[in-house]
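User: For a reading group we're discussing how well predicted structures match intuition. Take Metaxin. Before you show the prediction, I'll give you the sequence so everyone sees exactly what went in.
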Amino acid sequence: MTERNIVLYKWPGHAGLPSLTAASLQAEAALRLAKVQFFCQECSSSSTPTGVIPALDLGSEVPAASEAGDLAAARAIIAALAASGAGDLDAWLAPPQRAELLAFATLLQAKLDTATHYTTWIEKRGFGEFRKAAYGSQLPFPLSYIVPWSQRNEMAKLLGAIDGFKAYQGAVEVLSAVADRLRASPGRFFFGDRPSSLDALLFGHLAFYRHSPVAAPVLRDKVGRLPVLASYVDGILEDFFATAMPPPPMDDAGSWSDAAQGASSAPKPPPTVEDVRMWRGSQYWLAGAAAAVGGYVLLGGHYFSITTLDDDEGEGMDDDDDDDVQ
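Assistant: Thanks. Here is the predicted 3D structure of Metaxin, as structure tokens, for the group to look at:
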């Protein structure tokens, strides 16, 4: 196998980024950080050797993920690069660093993967942006709607009944921890002056959050408010992708969910026992009052009428009354 046989299948560039999704960014970053020579094949559908984007053809091997989802496919690509000897980004790490890498990689998978999937597939605005960019001009109607909606249903099953606010807040907490760790690094990457596979994974998420219109505002704002994360992303884009910093997406914040904007949309709490008692009491009182009035009208034979009097008539009545009194 030679390096020139390596082909990366990825989503096309979008919004100034080299690719549309965080997973494609991760896979390409791993190749570029490892300085592997490869060819890019941009895809606008799942017509890849594995049926998933991203995918990697190593010449004699096409690594496939054992889990569903494009982010799992990116991790499988990074692992296959290391196993094949084409580009092992972690070969130079010491045992303590490997242990830290495993801890942070697990944290990214649990929190950032979830937030990235949620904003792409579950969030109404995020999914709309993704569908338009991925399929809007690539597939004829009605396939441009049927295909992404089918994929969305599958991803919804994978994520389960996850709460959007908790997903985003979990990612925000991890981004703060990552920023603290990057500040403590003696170099520009996570473990110093040399990149690791963790940098490829982290870069994919951060670049997606910072520049993609598919990413929820709460994620973009968090990366933007932490200069160490923003400079980390833009430095890798410029030095390894030869890409200038893309312009910030123009968002209509009102079209995002409360969770995507960092606000909890907790449901109204159920009424207390005292609330129910007071409500029932008010209903009983109104019902009793209505019954009393109805009984008085029907059984007593009295009817209510309202007559509007002119001012002159009113004054005349007052004079008559005065005469009677005299």
